[in-house]
Amino acid sequence: MTDFKVYSTDEVAKILGVTRPTIHRYIKNGKLKCFKLGNRLVRITQEMLDDYIEKHQSHN
């Protein structure tokens, strides 16, 4: 069985060195994919984060 890492928006903000509102803006603009648990809980998988980093690493 493989590990399945899931991050909160706070964790992703720390990893990327940005603020939580910036992460929410990336999600709203479609730059960063996520999934929701319930009405408000947003989570980002390692695969989603890796995809964002791969697509945007040259822009930083």
Commentary on this structure:
- The chain is of the alpha+beta class and 60 residues long.
- The chain is built from three helices and three strands.
- The protein has helices at residues 9-16, 20-28, 46-56, and strands spanning 6-7, 35-37, 41-45.
- A three-stranded antiparallel β-sheet has the order 1-3-2.
- Helix 1 (9-16) crosses helix 2.
- The chain is globular.
- The model has no long low-confidence stretch (mean pLDDT 92).
Write the layout of secondary structure elements.
Blueprint: E1 6-7, H1 9-16, H2 20-28, E2 35-37, E3 41-45, H3 46-56
Antiparallel strand pairs: 1-3, 2-3
Keywords:
single chain; alpha+beta; 60 residues; 3-stranded antiparallel beta sheet; globular; 3 helices
